[in-house]
Please model this.
Amino acid sequence: MDRHPEHREPTTRPTLGEPRAFQSADELIDPTVHDEARLYENGKPPVVGDGSAVERRDFIKVLGATFAAATTTAACGRLPVTKALPYADKPEDVIVGRGVMYATTCRGCSAGCGVLVKSREGRPIKVEGNPGHKWSQGGACAIGQAQVVDLYDGDRLRQPMVDGKPATWKEFDAAAAAALGAYASDGKGLLLVTPTLTGPAARNLVQAFLAHFAGSRHLAYDGPFGAGAITAAHAATHGRSVVPRYDFSKAAYVLSFGADFLGTWIAPVPFAKQWNPGRKVSADKTTMSKLVAVESRLSLTGSNADARVRILPSEQRGLVLALAAKVATAKGLAVQGPAAEVKGDLGKHLDGWVKELLAAEGQCLVVADSADIAVQAAVNVINEALGNYGKTLDVDAPFQGMRGSAAAEAEVVEALAKGELTGAVLWGVNPAYDSRHAAKWAEGLKKAKVSIAIAGRAHETAAVCKLVGASHHPLESWGDHEVIAGLAAVQQPLVNPLFDTRQGEDLLLGWTGAVDSDGKPQTILPYLRLQWHAHVGPRATGSADFDRLWDSALNDGFVELQLVGDAAPLPAPGPAPAPAAVAPGGPMVAQAPQPSDEAAAADRADKPVEAAADASPVAAPAEVSPAALPADASAVGLPAAATPVVATFTLPPVVPARFDAAGATTALGAAPPTIAQAGALEVVLYPKVGLGAGDNANNPMLQELPDPISKATWGNYACLSPKAAKALGLLSSDVVVVSGGTAQVELPVVLSPGQHDGVVALPIGYGRATSVGRLGGGVGKNVMPFAALADIAKADVKPTGAKDPIAFSQTHHSYEHRDCVKETTLAAWQQDPTAGNAALDSMLHDPNAQDARTTRTLWTRHQYPGYKWGMAIDLNSCTGCGACVVACNIENNVPVVGKHEVLVRREMHWMRIDRYFSERKTFVQGDYDWQPTKDDLLDLADNPEVVHMPMLCQHCDNAPCETVCPVLATMHTSEGLNAQAYNRCIGTRYCANNCPYKVRRFNWFNYPTREMVDKFDIDLVTLALNPDIVKRSRGVMEKCSFCVQRIQEAKSNALRDADRATGEKRQPSNLDELQKNEAAGGKPLQPKYVRDGEVKPACQQTCPSDAITFGDLNLMDSKVRKAYEDPRNYSSLVEVGTQPAVTYMTKVRHAAEVFGPAQPAPKKPAAHAAPSAPVAPTGGTAPAGH
Model:
């Protein structure tokens, strides 16, 4: 019988000092808000026919006839015949049925992470982090994982366009030659726009273009959230126009002013890799780093902070300048900045921050995400005063991306408007959509005589250009990158172009007239090798032979370079390299790709990039001057045979950066940001973790990835604090009009705990043109017009009375108010390693059990004589980024279902990340019957703590799903896996009903559904499927399998390994099997075992923060077994007695030190006695609520 929506389980009240947890702020305002939808936790019955509902009795009557018809037609039906063509000459590196890994560089964002791409029979199907890469260290983000989906997108440009119509390359080349011919003798008026380029070949190609079209201009444009203010501030304070190379691994204390370095700021994957080790605690490491976030909205970084302070955007400048003045005064740094005004209680936080920063001198880091040069200069002053340069950040070996200047862009836009620039070539950028000056860009490009876009999609900038060159996908392209000084990375194609496209570099080479030694037009691969021979080879720390160096770069994905000192001449490079050979292969095989030896790359992972001991580090400048270029023929577009390659040049002499107090004083006085006058709320525009600035809008994997904070999918919204929403009478999904100046947009509301009450936050990247793609075009609204209002925009928010349902994922499941997340403070954990999870475990623990993981049960214990697979997830390390979710989806062919299906709770993700808010309030002794008001509950959402909890199939020993399946489709294996036999499943969904963790997924349709079927090119999408995993059909239940295909592959590899040892130190999972082993003379039950770390599920392999540990629990020295034995380890919902194989590590955080005024005591009825002394918070368990 269905529960009535008003029926609710009794709420578990937290004990004294324990945090109260909640899933969404809406349930604080209306506790029954999710109950009606939860009547169908596993999805409502599908609508058929004309959309009318199907009665239960009618459905049962039809069911019998359906089975009879199915039995009859099954004998007559035939599957379509599909013919496969074999290789005539199989490529040497292709082994049918086995994947080959190729090293390349991810271009999903500007971070330049090293990746390994798995190819099956010439098809790229999976992106993994490159464990040997010194920058990204084996991690990959959600955007990087989804690049293979983007590759097979049928909405990419398939051919060039001339005047808005499809054209041939011959027509395009003729039109481009005629257009650019006008600038051949005088390039004044011609503009080249690119992202910041870091590779030697790419930078020199730009210089070749500028040299060929003498007088032309180049603009580095990095989208709406570039780091131009950071480079300008460092130019003033340290004489370097660079973004520092931040190192969070050396920072014991991090103070962030709006810099979401774990989410979207600069390079989140490398930063997460650096940040994570400092957050781990164990018996051998009893301290951890502290993170303080000062921000306007709750960001991903803020959700992982130990302490947060909410501020308005307009308060940031004064706060940072005041902090810089205090720190500079304390350290005697002679810098004079303008007087800073700090309002309200923020001044009390300053003294606490100064105290903590001084205590961590030389081991702290202050960062800020701001376009205000004065703010960035103040951050530089703080870091300089504390001695952080050269330790936690470095400007001598910097990060070399994102150097675009906002001032330079504004100047170019004005020049276009005035007609001073009459032609523009835009390569890999989309300023007509994502720029603050988007409208001016579009207007200027329409007016320009020449406008050429080199793009992979028909985006907003391409739509206003007269010529559009269809470019390759990054996985089809060659390239080079030196994102961090001293590490040159290669980008190699994984597949031949799927469409009639060209690489952008080939177009620029053609326009500059570059030819090879045979007089033929130069192409990217020989040009790239020639540039590396001249620029990379002499600086490489490895082999002096260029061919061996090149092969090593293709295998490893990178080459370590010597950081050259002042005026140090480069050695002569020797003879020019021979052209690269093209490997034979099938139609899907890339041009001369080099397989990566992952093991060899991993062996080099622990070797840091170091400068020569006698050399002062030097970084390549953002713009290479012509004088610094080599006498290299290809660099200026001349025939290679005409001018031999000789290294007659030296790198520009660079001395180590020195702090300039006078320059800092000037920068601190930079003009303040403009602030809009009209509007009650300040506007914060931000990119979502999965979607970025909108480049990935047509990627369904990323559209359906829940936002780590709001847990919303498919669209954007207006984020308001719960108190601001309550004042307007709003709940989530209520539609409002956000208006300010000339900008206005209608969006649904999301209640966002932790957000400042005076802020409305709007995610960017939506409202794309329909030409971008069938999936992403038209999803959400474009909010970039608010950026054009002022540096700090303001807006009014007014309800419309309408509703626009938001496809949330967080509220789809109920744990019936059971405790699932456990957390404590560092001080409590240091006193008691079981802090936060001891009470319930001790209550259920059976002291007579054979091992610590056993609880009281009536079940017969399973026997695991061989392997016993298990997983441990450290809640201290998990940042909630969602990379594991996308990795799981791609590895296991998990379908995308669309917004409508998510709304009715039918998303198919095998893995989800539950986000829980909690707040430690001071409860009053004797007040146990206090019933909080709605205002009290809303106080919990002012500035809550957050826990991110990955949730997947727990592979329980006492699995409730196994006992209720009538056909044994779900069963327990001899290795501890809860397995699902797809061809046996009849879709009763009893298993999903009986699963307390709500991790099973039912195929309501043969996805893609009716909503999505017209938005895919099925023939292309199937190329991305993993052939090791069967595609499930309608009516079948599915779930996490611990990537059993990877387990089987590792076991097969172990059996084939002739050198594999057989006498490994193992401990079967129970005493009976141990005795059997001893009786058998101690011989292993299997001849060869998989070693620890040889099996990594997709989620573990991609995790940027190394939060997941997987392995064999029977292996006594395995990392997962050690995690199981850690006192912080606990099982979710342990009281249910499922004995899961997935366990968690208690969340430990620094107790937030409150520098502001004490919080008032909670309200209570007047009849209550006067409260006694408050009890301070301690560690405890957070009830999950709904």
